[in-house]
């Protein structure tokens, strides 16, 4: 865990300042606000780095969202600008368009979307929404990625959904380290320590993964895990999800051909 979270917090704030100075002076940070620790910490860091007037929080319920009050509380706590865009209609329209397509049914051997497709679709529509907001701002915007190191390690993200973005403050921070930063920033404790869930599958993160973030963080740091089955599962998830972290493969032309 972080030995000096105050120092790391200060460095993160400066890193965000530098990124925006180099990538677009005057543009805003656009962040999908879920009410969980990661988006809360990223929003708070950006508010410190850029000023609250240059941070746009976007709440994106898919129909109803049982914990949307947490997202609204975070926005009010930070005093940032915000908007609420309900993505339910967009999700339903795309699902219906796919399932009613004869070509889709023929090629995919079913008129029904797979369960994983349905789970990941809202995340990809949310990212599309964030970029629509960012590109529509008068001074432009940069979309924040809110994934942390622990989630990335086992691929617990949606490719081109929440794994996308323009800058990633938490990419090298474990779950417990993100909580340390959140506490340093003075974010309400119940937002930092709420049980994490993807808001898509109906399960908590740890229920879906099959192990705790504590065990995962310990393994990432030390390579050790007391339970052999948990170790195997972590390693399997890491290996089969590496494609989410690697740059897109591209053919390199041999100039001597």
Please give a quick description of this structure:
This protein has twelve helices and four strands, in the order H-E-H-E-H-E-H-H-H-E-H-H-H-H-H-H. About 50% of the residues lie in helices and about 5% in strands.
What order do the strands of the largest sheet run in, or round the barrel if closed? 3-2-1-4
The largest β sheet comes out as: 4 strands, parallel
Report mean pLDDT, rounded to a whole number: 94
What is the H/E order? HEHEHEHHHEHHHHHH
Tell how many strands the DSSP assignment holds: 4
Uncertain segments are none
Q: How large is the share of residues in beta strands?
A: 5-15%
**Helical run tally:** 12
Give a structural overview.
- This protein has 257 residues and is of the alpha/beta class.
- The protein is 51% helix and 7% strand.
- It has helices at residues 5-23, 37-50, 68-78, 88-99, 102-108, 115-136, 149-153, 175-184, 189-192, 205-209, 213-222, 228-240, and strands spanning 28-32, 55-59, 81-84, 141-143.
- It has a 4-stranded parallel sheet, sandwiched between helices.
- α1 (5-23) crosses α8 (175-184), α2 (37-50) crosses α8 and α4 (88-99) packs across α6.
- The chain is globular.
């Amino acid at each position: 865990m972080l030995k000096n979270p105050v120092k790391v917090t200060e460095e993160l704030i400066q890193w965000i300042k530098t990124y925006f100075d180099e990538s677009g002076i005057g543009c805003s940070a656009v962040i999908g606000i879920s009410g969980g620790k990661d988006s809360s910490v990223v929003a708070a860091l950006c508010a410190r780095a850029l000023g609250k007037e240059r941070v746009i929080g976007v709440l994106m319920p898919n129909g109803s969202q049982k914990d949307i009050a947490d997202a609204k509380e975070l926005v009010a706590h930070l005093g940032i600008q915000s908007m609420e865009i309900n993505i339910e209609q967009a999700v339903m329209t795309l699902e219906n368009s796919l399932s009613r397509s004869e070509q889709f049914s023929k090629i995919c051997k079913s008129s029904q979307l797979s369960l994983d497709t349905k789970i990941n679709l809202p995340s990809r529509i949310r990212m599309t929404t964030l970029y629509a907001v960012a590109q529509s701002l008068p001074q432009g915007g940069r979309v924040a990625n809110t994934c942390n190191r622990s989630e990335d390690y086992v691929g617990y993200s949606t490719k081109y959904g929440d794994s996308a973005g323009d800058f990633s403050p938490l990419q090298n921070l474990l779950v417990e380290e993100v909580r340390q930063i959140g506490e340093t920033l003075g974010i309400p404790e119940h937002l930092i320590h709420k049980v994490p869930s993807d808001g898509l599958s109906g399960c908590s993160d740890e229920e879906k993964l099959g192990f705790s973030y504590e065990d995962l963080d310990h393994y990432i740091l030390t390579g050790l895990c007391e339970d052999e089955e948990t170790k195997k599962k972590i390693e399997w998830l890491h290996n089969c999800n590496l494609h989410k972290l690697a740059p897109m493969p591209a053919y390199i032309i041999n100039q001597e051909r």
